[in-house]
Amino acid sequence: MKVAAVKKPGGLQNLVIETRDDPKPKAGEVLVRVRASSLNYHDFAVVLGGIPTPDGRIPMSDGACEVVAVGEGVTKWKVGDKVISLFFPGWQSGQIEAAGFASVPGDGADGFGAELVAAPETAFTRMPAGWSFEEAATLPCAALTAWRGMFVETKTKPGDWVLVQGTGGVSIFALQFAKMAGARVIATSSSNEKMERLKALGADHVINYKETPEWGRKAFELTGGRGVDEVVEIGGPGTMAQSINACRPGGHISLIGVLTGVSGEVPTAALFSRNITVSGITVGSRRHQEDMVDAIEASNMRPIIDSKFPLDQIAAAFAHQASQKHFGKIVLTI
C-alpha cells in the first residue's frame, strides 16, 4: 500500500511517500480502505516535528473509509460500510479518564495518511448518510471539537450569542453548528474578504480584529451590552483577555487552541468576578461523535471544503495550510 511518512527530524521536506506491506485485521479489528483525510493543526505539528513521533510515523488523525475486511468476532461493521475514524479510539463514552495522545492516529499510532488501515472496530463511527468521503473526512477532529465545546461542555440554544475566531476548520464548524441550533454568531477575522464569506455562512456580525484590537468589547456591545454566551477560543493566551471581555456574566469559553502560544497572562479576576466557566477541549468521545453525526443528518449542513490534494501532494497541502489563505477544511484524497 502507499503511505505518507514523516522522517526525522520532521518538516515538509521530510514528508515522503512510501510503499509498505498491506495490514491484516486481527480479531476484533476491521481493515478499511481510506478514501479521504483532512488537515488539522495537530497534524501540522506532527509533520513539522513539533510533536515527537517515531521515525516514519504515518500522519493524519482524520479518516473517512470503507470497510474492506473484518477480523474474527467483529459485530459492529460489515464489508462495504462507510465509517469515520475517532481521534481518541479508546474514549468510548463518559468523562475522559486519561490525558495524552498514545492512541491518537498520526501521533501515538500510525494514522490515516495511508491507503489501508487495520484498527479495532470500536475506533470508528458511521459516516453521515449521503455524505461523500471527502466531506466526512472533515469531521473527526475539527467538527467534533466544536460540537463538544458547544453542546457537551455547555448547551448552546436558540437565541444564544456565540463568538467564533477566524476561518479555520473548528471555527467554521462552530459557526455552522451555532446557526443549526438557532444561535446568533459574531465572527472575527483579519481579512475583509473572509468576513464577507463568514456573513454568507450566516454570521450575524463580523469584526476585523486588526482594525478593532478591542474586539472583545466590541462583541459585548454588539449583543446590546449583554455579552456572548459561548466563545470558541482558538487563539489561546493572546486572545483570552478579549474573549473574557466579550462574555456575559455566567458565560462559557471553550478553550481549544494555542495559536498565539502555549502560556501567557490571563485576567483571572475578570473570570471569577463574572462567574465565567472555561472548559479545556480536546476533541471528544465516540458517543459525542455519534450524537454529532445524528444531528448533522437531521439538518442540511455540509462542510466547507477549501481545497483537495491527492496523497502524493500532502506536503503541498500542508504548505497551503501554513499560508493561512484557506477558508474551511483542506482535504486529502487517498
**How many H/I helical runs?**
10
Strand content is: 25-35%
- The chain-level mean pLDDT equals 96
- The CATH topology of the largest domain is Quinone Oxidoreductase, Chain A, domain 1
Segments where pLDDT lies below 50 for 5+ residues?
Answer: none
Question: Based on the structure, what is the oligomeric state of the protein chains?
Answer: single chain
Q: Which class best fits the helix and strand makeup?
A: alpha/beta
Order of helices and strands: EEEHEEEEHHEHEHEHEHEHEHEHE
CATH architecture of the largest domain: Alpha-Beta Complex
The CATH homologous superfamily name of the largest domain equals Medium-chain alcohol dehydrogenases, catalytic domain
Roughly how much helix do the residues carry, as a percent range? Answer: 25-40%
Sum up the overall morphology in one term.
globular
CA radius of gyration: 20 Å
What is the domain total for the residues?
A: 2
Number of strands: 15
Largest sheet: 7 strands, mixed
Q: What is the rounded distance between the termini?
A: 11 Å
CATH class call of the largest domain:
Alpha Beta
Compact overview of the structure:
With 334 residues, this protein is α/β, with parallel strands linked by helices. It has helices at residues 41-48, 133-136, 139-151, 169-180, 192-200, 215-222, 237-246, 268-273, 286-297, 314-323, and strands spanning 2-6, 15-19, 29-38, 64-70, 82-85, 116-120, 124-126, 161-165, 184-189, 205-208, 228-233, 247-255, 277-280, 305-310, 329-333. The chain has 2 domains: 2-141 and 284-333, Medium-chain alcohol dehydrogenases, catalytic domain (Quinone Oxidoreductase, Chain A, domain 1), CATH 3.90.180.10; 154-280, NAD(P)-binding Rossmann-like Domain (Rossmann fold, 3-Layer(aba) Sandwich), CATH 3.40.50.720.
